[in-house]
Amino acid sequence: MTTLPYFDAATVRRALPFERAMTAIADGLRDGIDPELDGPRLFSPAPDGEFLLMPAQGAEFSGLKALTVAPQNPDRGLEKIQGLYILYSSDTLSPVAVLEGASLTAIRTPAVTLMAVRHLAEIAPAPFPAEPHVLVFGAGIQAIGHIQATLAAFPGASVDVIGRRPERIAAVQSEFPQLGIRDRGDDADAAVREADIILCVTSASTPLFDGALVRDSAIVAAVGTHGRELREVDDALVTRADIVVEGRASAERENGNLATALDAAAWAAETAPRNLQELVRGEVTRTPGRPAFYSGVGMSWEDLICASTVFSDAR
């Protein structure tokens, strides 16, 4: 085997700015990537954590993201999620490249979220603010990535943050000094009422806010947790919102935000939430007087599109 090209974290970040990632993801969905055909993620125990394997198939490339999840690492000053992405030729199944995996995840998750939010804004029943006010729950690496993606999708947006750790909020504020980001933890209810876009990127196990407070025109995205026992929003929001998910099968299987509001019959009905492919293909409509809610758990096809884009653009 010849030496495989390796794309380290800095190279991945340079090669995949958020606008490029959002465009690639939307193009992939329009061109035939079907989220409902994505394989399930594979979990296996690891010392003080777990292994996470995410395989995906495509016409030209296929891939496997191999990660470790170490919940104790942040307290040791280390990354919670680490790993690699291996890209293969779909024709020969020969490996063609290796990419640093955590940086890929740090880009693709915000890119998918803001691609969905931007499409939901474009089909809003009334004109959506060109410079929306954005409220972010969470102050970790995904919060920073989602703010960066927000500025790519909505360059004039203003941003406030609610988080648990003052030092992390300070780090987010220092990352974006031009935005004047406020810590809204002391007036969270008012912040929720005021927001045009609410981004939830936490490890919460219970709802972060009262869904009845969300304005009718708002867009909420919750992408911080996976697992039916974990959630960031309540049923009050879910039951009053137009819902879009990455894929129906993955959402029914893994999305705790929807676990109690939608049963098996609801997922099988014609009124089941629409998926991202249907959203980008213009097959989703918004209902006047209802907020929009997007929720994702992270899927393998998203990593494949992003890794393929990095490799193809470099080649």
Q: Could you characterize the architecture of this molecule?
A:
It holds the Pfam family OCD_Mu_crystall. InterPro entries: NAD(P)-bd_dom_sf, ODC_Mu_crystall, ODC_N. This is Ornithine cyclodeaminase family protein. It comes from Leucobacter chromiireducens subsp. chromiireducens. With 315 residues, the chain is of the alpha/beta class. It has eleven helices and 14 strands. The mean pLDDT is 95.
Strand content: 15-25%
Give the oligomer, counting copies of the same chain as homo and different chains as hetero: single chain
Return residue spans where pLDDT drops below 50 for at least 5 consecutive residues. none
Largest sheet entry:
8 strands, parallel
Give the helix level as a range of percent.
25-40%
Total number of strands: 14
- Total DSSP helices: 11
Give the overall average pLDDT.
95
Strand order of the largest sheet: 9-8-7-10-11-14-12-13
Radius of gyration: 19 Å
What is the H/E string? EHHEEEEEHEHEHEHEEHEHHEHEH
Structural class: alpha/beta
Distance between the termini: 19 Å
Shape estimate: globular
InterPro entries: NAD(P)-bd_dom_sf (IPR036291), ODC_Mu_crystall (IPR003462), ODC_N (IPR023401)
Protein name: Ornithine cyclodeaminase family protein
